[in-house]
Specification:
The protein is an all-alpha fold. It is built from 16 helices and no strands. The longest helix has 105 residues. The chain is elongated, with a radius of gyration of 36 Å. The N terminus is likely disordered.
């Protein structure tokens, strides 16, 4: 039934080339079954990437959830480790998959995550239930955020592009938006903190269980970095128009989140498994001066209206015009303008630097993932070669046994013939 509904849903899409849904469903069933196992080990990157690619083949995530509901639904809702892996893959689809994945998540798939959270309201031996509940909050909040703010992509922000909300900023909208983004960052920090608390500091070597627990950091690290940089850009825009007292609440929350995330990124950078995949850990820039040293409110005092000076002082006033702009005032105005221009250039350079850093991080991550896939392919190739070698050796052994049997048969026939001839000669000799 799920297969049929998925096929009908995709066939109705206009402008999408028809694909063989039977083949796609079969392939994704195989890959997802291998990825979402009960084993305490992370899913392989090739299986996750296959799910991402499938969203572009069908323009959505219908196949993904059709397989989950038809084949893996019981495991997803009853085995915490399977649910944990599924949330990681779903988060990956929301970030890297087709844009329609977010739109299709409205209602049904969002409610599925909500039911999963309530279904794991108990403790398990490995701590996966707690992680699943926290991760469900992140996924549901992410879906709601993107549905309310369609200008934000699944990656939260595209590298090298200005936030759409800052092109024609509305201060009232930004003031509410930054609070919403801070709430989302708090949830991400909660999950990452819980993941680090599950790690055993006394363990000398990481285990497959450790790798499985920390695997969602591959999604959460770039997501949290993009989120806090979004918060910074929105705050700096607000700080240009609003006074320090108005922004005091957002400023304190931003500073707390910045410190917490900085500590988490430092701890994550010490995990060899994570660094073997992403290579370059993003580093947060220092808090801007607008946060550490907010501007003070400048009150504009209205001066009383000018009155006509007495007639006796007009001649004096003509020779000494106290209201005229002096050379020092002009120099001060020029220097102030230069400082403002330099500040604009510095802000632009900072923004370009962060964009370059984000671009380097993304590209390095992509290269490392491809290297991991290549290593897996080489390993599978080596295993296949070994199997071929074993099969060839077995075939050689079979041929040798066959040749030995044939040689034994010939020797047996020759022996039988010689024995019969010998018996015949003995009889002839006895008769004579």
């Amino acid at each position: 039934m799920a297969h049929t509904s998925a096929k009908k849903g995709i066939s109705k899409m206009s402008g999408v080339p028809m694909i063989d849904m039977d083949v796609l469903m079969k392939e994704e069933t195989e890959f997802l079954t291998k990825a979402l196992t009960k084993d305490d080990a992370p899913p392989k990157e090739k299986h996750v990437r296959s799910a991402v690619v499938a969203t572009y083949q069908e323009n959505g995530c219908t196949v993904f959830f059709s397989v989950i509901e038809s084949r893996l639904n019981n495991w997803t809702f009853t085995i915490p480790i399977v649910g944990y892996k599924m949330l990681y893959m779903y988060h990956r689809l929301l970030r890297d998959g087709h844009p329609r994945v977010i739109k299709q998540s409205r209602g049904r798939y969002h409610d599925m995550v909500k039911r999963m959270k309530s279904g794991y309201n108990y403790k398990d031996d490995f701590g996966y239930c707690d992680l699943v509940r926290l991760y469900c909050d992140v996924i549901m909040t992410k879906i709601n955020f993107h549905l309310r703010h369609e200008d934000f992509p699944g990656l939260v922000r595209e590298e090298g592009e200005q936030l759409a909300v800052l092109r024609k900023p509305d201060m009232n909208h930004l003031f509410e938006l930054i609070s919403e983004v801070l709430d989302y960052l708090d949830l991400q920090i909660d999950v990452m903190s819980a993941i680090h608390k599950r790690l055993d500091p006394s363990a000398k070597l990481p285990t497959s269980h450790t790798h499985c627990v920390i695997h969602p950091l591959l999604n959460l690290v770039p997501e949290s970095f993009a989120t806090i940089m979004t918060i910074q850009d929105i705050y700096l825009c607000l700080a240009q128009e609003l006074d320090a007292d108005t922004l005091s609440g957002h400023r304190k929350r931003f500073a707390v989140c910045h410190g917490s995330l900085d500590r988490i990124l430092t701890l994550t950078g010490q995990l060899s498994y994570i660094m073997s995949i992403i290579r370059v850990m993003p580093s947060l820039p220092k808090l801007p001066e607008e946060v550490t040293s907010p501007k003070t409110v400048i009150l504009k005092v209205k001066l009383p209206p000018k009155t006509e000076p007495p007639a006796i002082s007009r001649a004096f006033s003509r020779n000494f015009d106290f209201h005229s702009e002096t050379a020092r005032d002009r120099q001060l105005a020029s220097l102030t303008k230069q400082v403002a221009d330099v500040s604009v250039i510095v802000d632009q350079l900072k923004a370009e630097r962060m964009e370059d850093h984000q671009r380097l991080f993304d590209k390095t991550n992509e290269v490392q993932m491809l290297k991991n896939e290549l290593a897996e392919a080489k390993q599978e190739n080596s295993e296949l070669k070994e199997q071929v070698t074993i099969a060839a050796a077995a075939a050689d052994t079979t041929d040798q046994m066959k040749a030995a049997n044939e040689r034994y048969s010939r020797l047996k026939e020759l022996y039988t013939k010689l024995r019969d001839d010998h018996v015949t000669l003995i009889r002839q000799k006895a008769q004579s």
